[in-house]
Automatic annotation (TrEMBL):
SUPFAM superfamilies: Glucocorticoid receptor-like (DNA-binding domain) (SSF57716), N-terminal domain of MutM-like DNA repair proteins (SSF81624), S13-like H2TH domain (SSF46946). One of its GO terms (biological process) is base-excision repair. Its cofactor is Zn(2+). GO terms for molecular function: 8-oxo-7,8-dihydroguanine DNA N-glycosylase activity; class I DNA-(apurinic or apyrimidinic site) endonuclease activity; damaged DNA binding; zinc ion binding. InterPro entries: DNA_glyclase_Znf_dom_DNA_BS, FPG_cat, FPG_N, H2TH_FPG, Ribosomal_uS13-like_H2TH, Znf_DNA_glyclase/AP_lyase, Znf_FPG/IleRS. Residues 2-167 form the Formamidopyrimidine-DNA glycosylase catalytic domain. This is Formamidopyrimidine-DNA glycosylase. It comes from Pseudonocardia sediminis.
Length: 291
């Protein structure tokens, strides 16, 4: 799933390639990808892209060429969605429901440059909204403070009143925006904290370590991602991960074996030596209580 660094990089890519270009046509390839109906996507024809921004893990393409009637095309890429830039595209509209293409935006002319929103797999969760104000998108309106904008004291205040486990808190967009499953694993590993540590029970030194790790991991990932082509961002993300998706491999810090805990449709990875005092965490796949 694209998280803060990848979405920031995609926004940067659009700012470099799409700014000041007019929309020639918008094609819908997914039956249910569009979550709004007024205004219709045809309202974008003739509008000029004036910016691209990030709201948590939402990507926003901005059309402020008419100050009295701005429009924002927002997308949440979910688990398997992606943005792909193209210099040329088919002029034939896609057949809805076939293939990974969910939405295509032609810029300058039909068949010219532009971008596609695609989604792999059978579970179609990618969502697109066309609104006059980003706050009209429910997921944006509910976002907590942006992870990169929250200082140490703000993080301490947020943690103090929350009795959830750190792993759960870090990935909750209504609490802290932009972090998902992968980077929460990386942040906790860097901070040397257990995914199951209780947020409100952290000592001051732990809060210091968590704040430093959060900013270091995300800032490094943004710096590595921004400037990369959209096609290479996924591999760039994978190359920078130390524990996430590395089950069974040696921890690059201590050499211990990276372990995994699975639940529902997801899993997370951690290093016992670095994070849990050498004690493996219980895995629900073994029908044991998680402690």
């Amino acid at each position: 799933m694209p998280e803060l660094p990848e979405v920031e990089a995609l926004a940067h890519h659009l700012r470099e390639h799409a700014i000041y270009r007019p929309v020639a046509r918008v094609d819908l390839g997914g039956m249910s990808v569009l979550k709004t109906f007024d205004p219709p996507v045809s309202a974008l024809v003739g509008r000029v892209i004036t910016g691209a921004a990030r709201y948590g893990k939402f990507l926003s393409v901005e059309f402020a060429d008419r100050p009295d009637a701005p429009l924002y095309l927002l997308t949440h890429l979910s688990r398997a969605g992606w943005l792909r830039w193209h210099e040329t595209a088919s002029v034939t509209p896609p057949k809805p429901g076939r293939g990974p293409l969910q939405l295509r935006v032609h810029l300058d002319s039909v068949g010219g440059p532009g971008f596609d929103l695609t989604e792999a797999g059978t579970q179609k969760r990618l969502a697109v909204y066309l609104v006059p104000d980003p706050q009209q998108v429910p997921g944006v309106a509910r976002l907590g403070p942006d992870a990169l904008e929250l200082g140490r004291d703000g993080l301490a205040e947020l943690l103090a009143g929350d009795s959830r486990r750190l792993k759960t808190l870090l990935a909750d967009q209504t609490t802290l925006a932009g972090i998902g499953n992968a980077y929460s694993d990386e942040i906790l590993h860097t901070a040397r904290l257990s995914p199951y540590a209780t947020a409100s029970r952290l000592k001051d030194a732990d809060v210091d370590a968590l704040s430093e790790a959060l900013h270091a991991v995300l800032t490094d990932a943004v710096e590595r991602s921004v400037g990369q082509g959209a096609a290479t961002l996924k591999s760039e993300k994978r190359s920078g991960l130390r524990v996430h998706a590395r089950t069974g491999l040696p921890c690059p810090v201590c050499g211990d074996t990276v372990r995994e805990v699975s639940f529902a449709e997801r899993s997370f990875q951690y290093c016992p030596t670095c994070q849990t005092g050498g004690k493996p965490l219980a895995d629900r796949r073994l029908s044991r209580l998680v402690r």
